[in-house]
């Protein structure tokens, strides 16, 4: 059979009505398959939730029942306070600002091709 002959056969079959008993058999088979798998719809999420709960309970840190005594603190040696000899404070240098005796303020004017835009740099 060639492809063209198969296409013609399928066209003829498409035009013929489907017998009612065949349609009923197919629907009954689909319904039975769906009923078989319906319990899985509930079982799978319950099993997944159980696995997550079991992992949580098994992986949590174990509680220790042994009481641990706190270590004793070391004794602090008695230290004599320093003598009351005054310590002079170090003199701080004064900040001196440099004076520009002959400094002239500088300003730069930049003109752009646009007459409304002028850039001024002022010292």
Notes on the protein architecture:
The chain is mainly α and 123 residues long. The protein has a domain of 57 residues. The protein is 43% helix and 8% strand. The chain contains two helices and two strands, in the order ααββ. A two-stranded antiparallel ribbon has the order 1-2. Strand 1 and strand 2 form a beta hairpin. The mean pLDDT is 83.
Summarize the structure.
The protein is mainly α and 123 residues long. Helices cover 43% and strands 8% of the residues.
List the helices and strands and how they pair.
Layout: H1 3-15, H2 20-59, E1 107-111, E2 118-122
Antiparallel strand pairs: 1-2
Q: What structural category arises from helix and sheet content? A: mainly alpha
Order of strands, widest sheet: 1-2
Q: Mind summarizing the main beta sheet?
A: 2 strands, antiparallel
> Quaternary status of these chains?
single chain
Sketch the topology as an H/E string, one letter per element. Answer: HHEE
Please give the alpha-carbon distance between the first and last residues: 98 Å
**What is the mean predicted local confidence, pLDDT?**
83
Number of DSSP strand runs? 2
Please give the radius of gyration in angstroms.
48 Å
Low-confidence stretches: none
Share of helical residues:
40-55%
Shape descriptor? flat
Proportion of residues in extended strands: 5-15%
Distinct helical segment count? 2
What are the main properties of this structure?
123 residues, mainly alpha, flat
